[in-house]
Amino acid sequence: MATAIDEKPGVDNASDHEKDLGSAMPEKLTNFEDPDAGLSDEERARIDRQLLWKLDLRLVPWLSLLYLVSFLDRTNIGNAKIDGLATDLGMTADQYNATLTIFFVSYSVFEPVTNVLLKRLRPSIFIPCIMVAWGICMTCMGVVKNYSGLMAARWFLGLAEAGLFPGVGYFLSCWYKRSEFGVRMAIFFSAAALAGSFGGLLAAAIAKMDGIGGKPGWSWIFILEGLATIVIGVISFWCVHDFPDQAKFLSPEDRARVLRRLAADQQSSAEHEEFKMSYFWASLTDWKTYTGAIIYMGADGSLYAFSLFVPTIINELVSYSAIRAQLLSVPPYAAAAILTITIGFIADRTRQRGLCNIGVSLLGMVGFAMLLGCESPGARYAGTFLGAMGIYPAIANTISWSSNNTEGVYKRGVSLGFIIGWGNLNGIVSSNIYRANDKPRYYPGHGVVLAYLVLFLFGGSVVQYVLLRRENRKRRRGDRDQWIAGLDPGQIELLGDKRPDFIYTL
């Protein structure tokens, strides 16, 4: 077992062997001119804080808004259902579940390639374009007349939305140090929890438009939210920025500072890396891609089951009215949003992302055990709180964990695409486990989600944590030094997270 101090961030506990090895590594900082040469450490720290604050204000809030809109648009079908969608379109329960499933097919299949497109087309073009496209799909869902039309709209919605979440996760990882990324990703992803809260309130308000223009309330949910998405997408052409070396909102000096910060953090985001198929294969042959995918499927499969069906679950507790069920779905999401940001902050400070995953997964397991076993409606409603608090923080934390441990701009992009794509593919399962004939207790649905949390989120996190800890010990002992024998500094740099001095985040 490694001693506790072995894993502490920011502590110079390197052995003489590690220091000798580090001296042979390429020094990336020499590639960038230092605009703050000659300044004291205090002045440098003050400038760095100001720069970080500028990045946070220009990057995180708008991207969080985009994800809020994205998650609202993909899950508001659950709100529309309890306002009469299935009845008005003459759909059976199986057909409704199929409209949920088809979204995840196109969404998951296209996710692995979107990060390459994002890098090549620039975020300021790619993200607004896909947003306008899914806003059009969303609006069309409000005017469909039958099951076939809804299926087509949902398929294209999944295709259009595929690039946002993996794209933004990858994009933010190219701006921040590893120790800063988690809380920003958590703030970004907390928009999903807020979308659950906001979505319930918004749906309850829009549903009151029932009959206006000859359209039912559920139709107006899709139309108004779709039009809002198109407007926000157009504005995004001016509000979404490019990668650090191209960002127009930064002065040349600030761009140099950002690149130096990344270089100091041993990130290839600071370099102008060209795409090669070798990066694609490096991702596919990395065991962390597969453990990350297993962990993420445990969180994401649970997330979609929860977010798509929580209004229905709450509606069945004591047969609440549709509007009251919408409103009661708000507090669990709010609690999840708060914990998501808290876990992001804790994980950044402690660098113990695996333990954070393990801890929150236990909350989710207790929550769904309560939904399965408790008879009291109040206790089961409390279970929805713990369920949300055990799922949402793990999504952002898992993406941060995988990003921290994958080096190389394109390799990281491909890995995140596969991890997120595989996780979202499990939405196909999630959209079919809460069946109408299982109400009001939904034992099969709750049981499947509990299994996902135990086997994949909890179990996968434990396995990856143990394997990373073991690998770090081998690298500190020098067991991996043969990987760089005979290589020049440039070749060593191309190894990315295979470099023997690259220590994984636990």
Automatic annotation (TrEMBL):
InterPro entries: MFS, MFS_dom, MFS_trans_sf. It is a multi-pass membrane protein. GO terms for cellular component: membrane. The chain crosses the membrane at residues 98-118, 125-144, 156-175, 187-206, 218-240, 293-314, 326-347, 354-373, 379-401, 413-434, 446-468. Residues 59-506 form the Major facilitator superfamily (MFS) profile domain. It comes from the Eukaryota. Residues 1-37 are annotated as: Disordered. Residues 1-21 have a biased composition (Basic and acidic residues). CDD domains: MFS_FEN2_like. Pfam families: MFS_1. Its main location: membrane. GO terms for molecular function: transmembrane transporter activity. Keywords: Membrane, Transmembrane, Transmembrane helix, Transport. It is found in: Membrane. This is Major facilitator superfamily (MFS) profile domain-containing protein. The lineage of its organism: Eukaryota, Fungi, Dikarya, Ascomycota, Pezizomycotina.
